Amino acid sequence: MRSVSAEDRRDLGIGDLVEALRRSEQNFRTIIERARPSHLCAAAVLLTGCGGTVSSSDARGDAGADVDAAAHADASLDVVAEASAEAEASPDSGSCRVSSDSTLPGVTIAFRAPVTCQFTLAQAQSGVAIPYDVIVAQDVSGVVPLPQDAGHCGTPGPSQLITFERLSGGGQDYCLCDIGLCAPSTPTPVTVRAGTYPSTFTWQGRNWGGPSDTSNPMGATFPAGTYVLHVDATGTRNGVSFQVNATLSIALTP
Questions:
Q1: How far, in Å, CA of 101 to CA of 116, rounded?
Q2: Are residues 140 and 67 located together in one domain of the fold?
Q3: In this structure, are 106 and 27 located in the same domain?
Q4: Is the pTM of this model over 0.85?
Q5: How many C-alpha atoms does 25 have within 13 Å on its Cβ side?
Q6: What is the per-residue pLDDT across 39-50, written as a single tens digit (0 to 9) for each?
Q7: Bond prior to 114 in cis (omega within 30° of 0)
Q8: CA-CA distance, 155 to 137, in Å (whole number)?
């Protein structure tokens, strides 16, 4: 390992150390080797409170300050690592895998925080409710919402869009894909008004394609595994197709 000069140490500031604490241990330890003692202690203060304040005299430092500051920094790194592990383990911590996309300007679908994405099989079969919002930043005119079910029975919700929900993966599938056959309707452009429109995906842990017009029963339960919930809205605006969608990865455990 090459020796580090005092000039090298001055190149790094507190911000570098704080960022390093939030990254990998390897990157952080590289920063420690180049950092000034006062900056090490200041970074530890920001994250765990290493005790006291940092004065201008700290900048001079000595061998003892180097050791103390490095010890505080190591402790801070441990705290950050523990917090990260807890966040990854908690289904309500924001660690759920979500994504969203939209080709309708100003309109998005978002799962409502705190997002829950892990359930036991028993919880799923007792009934799961996952809230989400259709968010419209400004009025959008000339929108023709289109249903996505097989019989074209879907109707607009409060947002004037027609949302379609589907949970699937690994050969399992749940959706209201078939709720019967409906008479064709004449597409009429509407204005989607600015606002936040709440909705909820509900599920009983089973496969189902919808009741159709023959009262189809629900199928087998989903096994433990990872599945993806899709919430979509499609249609046209001024003759051009659009799609608004959001996805959430859901884990079922025994």
A1: 20
A2: no
A3: no
A4: no
A5: 10
A6: 443 444 333 343
A7: yes
A8: 22
